[in-house]
Amino acid sequence: MAYTLKKTVGFILLVVTIGGVSVMSIFHMFPPLF
Amino acid sequence: MSAAKRYEPTLHNVRYGIKGILLYLLPLPVLITAIGSLMRGAVMDTLVTGGVFAALMLGASIARHGFRLQGEYERRKIARAPSTPFKTVAAIIISLAIGVLDWWNSSFAMGSILPSTLVGAVTFLGFALYYGLDPRRDKATGISIGVTIDEVLDALDAANVKIDAIEQARRKINNPEFNARLQRITSKAREVLTSIEDDPTRLSRARKFLKVYLDGTQRVTEGYARAHQDNKPVALETNFSRVLDSIEQTFAEQHTKLLEDNHFDLDVQIEVLETQLKREGVL
Hints:
The complex is a heterodimer of chains A (about 35) and B (about 280).
Chain A: H1 2-29
Chain B: H1 21-25, H2 28-40, H3 43-75, H4 86-105, H5 113-130, H6 149-171, H7 176-198, H8 203-230, H9 234-260, H10 263-279
Helix pairs in contact in B: 2-3, 3-4, 4-5, 6-7, 6-8, 7-9, 8-9, 8-10, 9-10
């Protein structure tokens, strides 16, 4: 249970940080489009 | 810890699947940004995003190496903790890269340093939670009185280095029959090491056996591989074939005896093999 929770939280944090910041970089590059 | 050469387990094919693939996929938008920056002719932006993307890919590769080492560590019943904390290094590289990218997203505004640092720290936390950090402690199970973990690990490391040397020499031998036999011999040797990992008390009995067998096999194989490259005397072929026969046969028996905990037979057979190797001019 604790293991699954740890994995899930870790996964969400990775997706939000790496994925989120990466996608935001496109938004930063093309601001007029968004 | 002794001065024995540290065995690098990466030489073996430990399957670790697609673990860490996420670290390659998630940063892909940064590549798009970098290409976009390049097409716009924004040099600074291209350098930053391109650099961040490269750092993220490097981090992912280092992490994969760390996963492989950990896989080997977990597979072995007794093992040393990885000498370099690859996963931690990867987590730091990735966190720094994401922190820098987040700061770039805020146009390097001074007020964004703290939030970007926080984003980097959260990335590290996410990595630590999802992938975990490196094992820091040597692993030992079933170590009984009389054998220390260092003794067992040193002996196993030394044996692994010898097996690797035999395999390296084997690759230089073109004869498919000898090649296949040497492959069987090395895989048997690894089985013996596994049986020692299973029960380290076997080490004291297997020590001499490993030494005589592996040293002899290494010398004879390397010698043959060397001679084979120059010319191919028929007598050498026959001798080598005969030595391989006895090594292969004896070693299979040794393994069985080791598992049966049969002290006497083990020693007797070692003597027989030793004599034969001496006769063939190997020892």
